[in-house]
Amino acid sequence: ADLNDTHSIEEAIRESEPEYIFHLAAQSFVQASWKIPADTFHTNVIGTINLFEIVRRMGIDPVIQVACSSEEYGDVKEDEIPIKETNPLRPLSPYAVSKVAQELLAYQYFKNFNTSSVAIRIFNTTGPRKLKDVCSDFTKRLIEIEKGINKEKVLKVGNLETKRAITDVRDIIYAFD
Question: Facing residues of 23 across strands?
């Protein structure tokens, strides 16, 4: 279903009669959110409202799991590492603000309409078909070197002091269950 098309959401929900809805749909690229902030908000925030409103109007009570993001933490201070769930949210991009809004919408629908919802802040992921992340970028460059496409035979990288937790998307999906 397209979260911007309420008819398609309602049709998908009616057909599937879900006990659980895993709301993973989003404009999820931080850089893109700077280029298209209104589209990011429309998809991520209005799309989430559309989903919750349709569930509410239909009078059903599936558990809605909203995929939020570690980007919500934003400006993390050195003394706050490792990040705890209770860390203040200081989002630094339109994408991050939209994910905070999704999380607050899940809470608001729970408090006001008793809609069963869970917000999960997902950190960096990688996996099959994942593009434009550190793992896929490094792998692509190494393959280019191996195939002779990259004639320099040098793997250029950025800051190697950065520490990140990266989880395979298949492990994340397994954890949702």
Answer: 66
Q: Say what the pLDDT of residue 131 is.
A: 77
HSE of 85, CA atoms in CB hemisphere, 13 A:
5
Our CA dihedral for 79, 85, 91, 96, rounded to 10 degrees, sits at 140
User: Which DSSP string do the residues of 20-57 spell out, in sequence order?
Assistant: EEEE--S---HHHHHHSHHHHHIIIIIHHHHHHHHHHH
Indicate if the pLDDT at residue 152 is higher than 90: no
Angle at the Cα of 95 (from 81 to 116), degrees rounded to 5? Answer: 85
Q: What share of the chain is helix, strand, coil (3-state, %, to 5)?
A: 50, 15, 35
**Angle 3-42-21 from CA coordinates, rounded to 5°:** 30
- In order of 57, 88, 131, 145, 155, the CA distances from 136 in angstroms are 42, 31, 6, 14, 13
The pTM is what?
0.86
HSE (CB half, 13 Å, CA atoms) of 135?
14
